Amino acid sequence: MESPELSFTLAYFVFSLCFVFTPNEFRSAGLTVQNLFSSWLGSEDVGFIQYHVRRTSITLLVHSALPLGYYLGMCIAAPEKNLGSFHQVSDSWRAFLLLSLCLQLTSWTLVIYWSRRRWHNHPISRALQSHIQPPHSSWGSVATSVNDEFRRIDKFATGAPGARVIVTDSWVLKVTTYHVYMALQTDCHVTVTESRQHQLTPDSTSPAQILTLTVGSINPAVRPFDIRLISTEYAELREKLHAPIRNAANVVIHQTITELFLETFRAQVDLNRPYTLPSGQEVEPCIGCMQAPAGTKLLRLCHAEGADTESECQQCFCRPMWCLSCLGRWFASRQDQQRPETWLSSRVPCPTCRAKFCILDICVVH
């Protein structure tokens, strides 16, 4: 029969490991620093920088208290050791207690130092100070810029809470347990350095390719940092990232069938006849993404191209309302996913008026 001391040690070790490297089960149960101290941390959407300054500080304090918690737990689990009496415990337990207290005291001292001058000494604040340049006159102004862009819905965000990657219009951010790495898009360059194949992932049973990218900056005060993402998210990252991406390791990046189709789709549409807007008509934003201009118009041209004598395509009378990317994704979503070889020759309904069209009927607006 196992002793209470061994049982508690194993249980506390597993709990501590899961609390620091939080699995989905702990996150679902609310056993995270973010959830336990949510009332003090505030909202990430309201103040991204302020939230993570507080989060990293309280995380350091809580994690450094785990050894002391183990000692206090052993006082209950193994009362015969007399751990509650400092003078009666063995030298090894006395040394463990002193180290635990020193670790907790050091953490509190460090957090108090960080909090001086309104958190001016915090590592995240120091990272922001590296980016003080016009039009920003202080690190608080830089923080406001990051907060404003994080609130936008068009940002790219991926990864687990302990290693999140966020790309906004001006910033590349990596959120870790104890720090937030950041680089200005105008100053940084990204390099694909490594690729790993994983047969199983937490979110899928199919194999996944994990890419490692190094974000460097021409700003000497900004240290390079690595970000990781699944290869299927690489295309979305590339669309949001304005900085150049180099492939130093000659990594072959696997794409989804939809992404491969979109590349062919764009190439084919570029060969079609362009559409010139009538005078006085302006290009509106795409109603699918509300970001890119509506750069496509559907015209029944396949019969003129000689594709079919009796074409099933219909005339669409809608004004330009969709960008090429959104229309391509709509086209792919209406296909038989088991027969990708038929996608280019298929016909789908217009997403607005339901008139059938094929790829030859799509014109780029000039």
TrEMBL record:
<protein>
    <recommendedName>
        <fullName>E3 ubiquitin-protein ligase TM129</fullName>
    </recommendedName>
</protein>
<dbReference type="InterPro" id="IPR018801">
    <property type="entry name" value="TM129"/>
</dbReference>
<dbReference type="GO" id="GO:0016567">
    <property type="term" value="P:protein ubiquitination"/>
</dbReference>
<keyword id="KW-0472">Membrane</keyword>
<keyword id="KW-1133">Transmembrane helix</keyword>
<dbReference type="GO" id="GO:0016020">
    <property type="term" value="C:membrane"/>
</dbReference>
<keyword id="KW-0812">Transmembrane</keyword>
<dbReference type="GO" id="GO:0061630">
    <property type="term" value="F:ubiquitin protein ligase activity"/>
</dbReference>
<comment type="similarity">
    <text>Belongs to the TMEM129 family.</text>
</comment>
<dbReference type="Pfam" id="PF10272">
    <property type="entry name" value="Tmpp129"/>
</dbReference>
<dbReference type="GO" id="GO:0005783">
    <property type="term" value="C:endoplasmic reticulum"/>
</dbReference>
